[in-house]
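Hi F.,

I've been meaning to write this up properly since the lab meeting, where we talked about keeping a consistent format for the predictions we share between groups. The idea is simple: the sequence comes first, exactly as it goes in, then the structure tokens exactly as they come out, then a line or two of notes. No screenshots and no reformatting. I'm using this chain as the first example so we have something concrete to point to.
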Amino acid sequence: DYYVQAIPFRLEFSIKSRDREDNLLSEVKGEFFIKNKNSFYVEYPGEEILYDGKWLWTYNKHTDQIVVEEFDPTSSLNLIYDVINGDLESYQINKTQKTDQFQEIFLEPKGDSNFFKKFKIVVPQDTTLIDHLQYVDFQSNQILINFLQIGDSLLCDSSFYDIKNMEEKELIDLRP
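Output, unedited:
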């Protein structure tokens, strides 16, 4: 509820991915801008991503290409988006656990989701802000998503949708 009531906002985050032997596969920091419950914009070093409520637009600054496609339900961005919007209908709470500092909520997918195997939301005691999310994917990779800082969004409507208006860039359209 906290995040939905805070819309529009900007969330700084980091994503670390480790394999089953705990080797670091990737690490990236970004900013997640929520304009409304139906769209978001993400800025990574070298990449901008816009979800307009229907399509995912990804602009690669190095190749000057824009890819437009369906929003992958197994992406970390989708998980962040679902958690921020309180949309956890496809998960069931397996257990909750309190430590001195945190409340941990363990979830598992309902139905036939083969991507997320284990999923945990960690919230510091006495707050409604999420500290981090952890999940294990179908390849036993461990993904840690840290929610670093939330603040007001200074992104205006025109710049929020700029990614769709880059006529001089190469467009790769993967929409069905």
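Notes:
The CA atoms of residues 69 and 174 lie 5 Å apart.
The mean pLDDT is 87.

If this format works for you, I'll send the rest the same way.

G.
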